[in-house]
């Protein structure tokens, strides 16, 4: 039975038998997409599919711990899916949300964010339903100038200006345009954003590895760029951390478990062993200029560090001061939490004062920040620092060279 006939049968069968047929239709459509080199087929074949009558749309992406689910509502399916093209449009729409990381970036989104997310991905979806939100409809009916192929974040800012008008809010609410999926399930459920990001990154890496260059050549440039941005986001932490560790002047201690090199025949003499690195101390900028997206990315990078070096890692939030009361030790790469503790200004001097006062000079220091701080600091001679800036950031504001600077691409 082809997919269109299967959808026709779903609409005619009793509600008790619909779930099995819907699951079969979804599977057949995804396999068809996979066999024809379609991105959504490669991506969604890896998601568990779950029936859920609580979602307010045909489909929704939903977090269950650190697992991303493709959920569907049979009642909505019968109302909205009349052909294979309708089904394809919905599945492509979901895959584009994943590629642009919307299930991480929009944690419990409001109306403006939801519309912005939909119009950004709908530009890459074939067979859109007539009631879907699009740039063209918003521009025509409400006289909003919206550029094409921009990130949802830019659309959020433009729509906020327009929808701040109560009449405009009413007009959009009363229009026949609807969101294609239920975004409220983007909300995180007892799992860190770092773990969620790792899940999607691994999903996309697997998708890219299976698609091949021929199939990727059929994708729009913006989609390919986004795939590459996520797929290539790994930082060689081993290189940077080994370099940082090598700068630390390790002391030596006596041990009876090691032979004395100078007099190895004398068993009663202890040998010497090098002392270990105390810990890696990480400072995460919580100032007002830092986006939540960058903080999410910082957490995911720290997960990578801990997987490589499961040693003592301590995280300190900072803005104009170090929030020592909110510091914590990393015990698992899956349990690194993100809690914005402040939105003040940025003081890099507070970091070096803290290191000096607490006698933390025998540690390797990593600072996640946007680089927007003061120009002059007293580092007390401490240079074992790695600054991790957003790719979109300007240069680090400090005039004096202290340590090394690398950049990572933001997840916008």
Q: Provide the residue-averaged pLDDT.
A: 85
Q: Tell me roughly what share of residues is in helical segments.
A: 40-55%
Uncertain spans: 255-259
What portion of the residues fall into strands of 2 or more residues?
A: 5-15%
- Number of helical stretches of at least 4 residues: 15
Q: Could you tell me the number of beta strands? A: 11
User: How many domain modules?
Assistant: 2
Order of helices and strands: HHHEEEHHHHHHHHHHEEEHEEHEEE
Main sheet: strands, sense, barrel: 6 strands, mixed
How many angstroms separate the termini?
42 Å
Oligomer: single chain
- What structural category arises from helix and sheet content? alpha/beta
Sum up the overall morphology in one term.
elongated
Pfam families: DUF2201
Protein name: VWA-like domain-containing protein
């Amino acid at each position: 039975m082809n997919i269109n006939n299967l959808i026709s049968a779903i609409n005619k069968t009793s509600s008790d038998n619909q779930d099995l047929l819907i699951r079969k239709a979804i599977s057949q459509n995804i396999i068809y997409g996979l066999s024809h080199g379609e991105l959504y087929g490669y991506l969604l074949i890896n998601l568990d599919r779950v029936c859920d009558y609580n979602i307010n749309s045909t489909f929704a992406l939903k977090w269950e711990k650190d697992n991303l689910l493709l959920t569907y509502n049979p009642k909505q399916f019968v109302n909205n899916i009349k052909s294979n093209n309708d089904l394809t449009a919905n599945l492509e729409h979901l895959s584009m949300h994943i590629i642009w990381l919307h299930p991480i970036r929009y944690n419990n989104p409001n109306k403006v964010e939801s519309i912005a997310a939909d119009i950004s991905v709908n530009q890459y979806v074939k067979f859109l339903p007539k009631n879907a939100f699009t740039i063209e409809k918003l521009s025509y009916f409400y006289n909003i100038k919206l550029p094409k192929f921009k990130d949802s974040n830019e659309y959020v800012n433009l729509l906020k200006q327009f929808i701040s008008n109560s009449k405009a809010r009413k007009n959009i609410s009363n229009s026949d345009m609807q969101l294609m999926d239920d975004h409220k399930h983007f909300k995180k459920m007892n799992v860190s954003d770092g773990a969620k990001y790792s899940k999607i990154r691994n999903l996309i890496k697997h998708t890219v590895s299976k698609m091949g260059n021929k199939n990727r050549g059929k994708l729009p440039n913006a989609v390919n760029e986004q795939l590459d941005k996520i797929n290539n986001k790994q930082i060689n932490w081993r290189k940077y951390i080994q370099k940082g560790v090598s700068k630390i002047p390790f002391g030596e201690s006596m041990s009876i478990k090691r032979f004395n090199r100078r007099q190895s025949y004398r068993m009663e003499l202890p040998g010497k062993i090098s002392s270990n690195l105390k810990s890696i101390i990480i400072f995460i900028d919580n100032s007002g200029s830092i986006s939540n997206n960058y903080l999410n990315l910082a957490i995911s990078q720290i997960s990578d560090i801990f997987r490589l070096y499961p040693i003592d890692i301590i995280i300190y939030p900072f803005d104009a001061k170090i929030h020592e009361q909110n510091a914590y030790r990393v015990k698992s790469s899956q349990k690194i939490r993100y809690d914005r503790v402040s939105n003040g200004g940025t003081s890099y001097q507070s970091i070096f004062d803290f290191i000096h006062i607490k006698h933390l000079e025998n540690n390797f220091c990593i600072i996640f920040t946007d680089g927007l701080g003061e120009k002059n600091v007293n580092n007390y001679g401490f240079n074992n620092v790695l600054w991790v800036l957003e790719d979109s950031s300007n240069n680090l504001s400090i005039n004096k060279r202290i340590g090394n600077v690398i950049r990572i691409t933001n997840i916008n």
